């Protein structure tokens, strides 16, 4: 069964990518719009830095590294989860999710890989270019250890993003409606473009625990650069590395619980 899944997944991805690339001009224009949109957000941060020199003790290159890390981790994690799990609410409401349950295939795997969103290419391009500049400009001596930590923390942040989105989407299997929770998710996500220490203690706690999106931005980047991390302190680095895998396990448990509670279109 595992080998069957592994053979089918690339086919699902290839079919979906072909459908998204049917109108290539429109596709790349949309990606350009994304780059300009997020570029304007970063430009806003630049305006703040031009006025105040630093933000929470973070310099311009350091904030560029933070912003690019956050954007890249989100885009990689969301490409594997957001649109697919957002649409799950509609599948549940219309009863079409039932058809996935009778397929000889994991419903989660089918949802994720048949809807792999290459539309995040614009996010990735901007994040990689900005990250390349930031890595060369930041006042930091890179080593094999720090580079390894950076890659591992980025992987963990990507996993954490996908896990949180999966848990939100899976809630539709219990409540039918869950997309309103994405508004809460993105409200907190936008805060993580900035250093954690500029926020009040209550928000810092939420961003590390209940909605741990700080682990996808300022906590790992701050730990790498030697910045003081509120609440976590010296534990910031290890927590950044284990956060993603732990939340993946929680997401798996939540998905199984939600599918167990699912009663079909009739309620």
Describe this structure in words.
This protein has 267 residues and is mostly helical. The chain contains 14 helices and no strands. The mean pLDDT is 86. The radius of gyration is 19 Å and the shape is globular. α13 packs antiparallel against α14 (236-261). The chain has one domain (1-261). The protein starts with a helix and ends in a 6-residue tail after the last helix.
Which blocks of ≥5 consecutive residues have pLDDT under 50? none
Report, as a whole number of angstroms, the end-to-end distance.
30 Å
Number of strands: 0
The number of helical elements comes to 14
- Biggest sheet descriptor: none
Structural class: mainly alpha
Please estimate the helix content: over 70%
Total separate domains: 1
Shape: globular
The SSE order reads HHHHHHHHHHHHHH
| Average pLDDT rating | 86
**Strand proportion:** under 5%
Radius of gyration: 19 Å
InterPro entries: ABC-2_transporter-like
Keywords: Membrane, Transmembrane, Transmembrane helix
Organism: Rhizobium sophorae
Transmembrane segments: 32-52, 64-83, 108-136, 142-175, 196-215, 235-253
